[in-house]
Model the fold of this input.
Amino acid sequence: MNGGFRKNKGIIIELTSLLDIIMIMLFWVMLNVSNSAADAEKKAQEKIDAANSKVQSAQADAQKQIDEAKQENQKEIDKINEQNREMKQNAENMQNALDGFNEGKMVTLEMKYEGGHDVIYVSQNGGSSQSVTVDDKLKDNLSSALNSYGLDKDSITLAAFMYDGNTVLYRDVNNVQDVLSKIKGNYKNIYFTHINTTK
Done:
């Protein structure tokens, strides 16, 4: 007797559509994760590139400053060396001028007050003198007198400007000193000394 028992037929649940949806969602999640990772990697690389660029720029600036400092230092060294060379040359020239003075070689410019005006008597090594009047042509006339002794821009000699402060005019002394300073530019190795013979 089968009584109240009935056989249940199996219930079939179709999962294909659900699996499709799950796979689509999983694919979408994986795609988003992949895109996010790619974006993060790209941003990280951009930051790295920016940092590298800053480092390279800083290195370039530092190297430029180092090179400029080296150039400035070299310029200073060259300048000091040139000054030392000039000082050494000037010392040698002065010594040569003093040696010539000890041997009686010297140009003398003696100023005297005569005939109502000042006159400079120019001589070399105690020889015969030339008279030069203190006037507007003083520079040209003094230069001509020095040139007549064979002096040029390379000549090394001592020149003494002598005057008696009690007899000559003060303004003429200043005028002659100014002219001698200008003349020295043409005769760079002539060393002028000024001697006031006032007693």
Summary: The chain has a mean pLDDT of 80. The two ends are 172 Å apart (CA to CA).
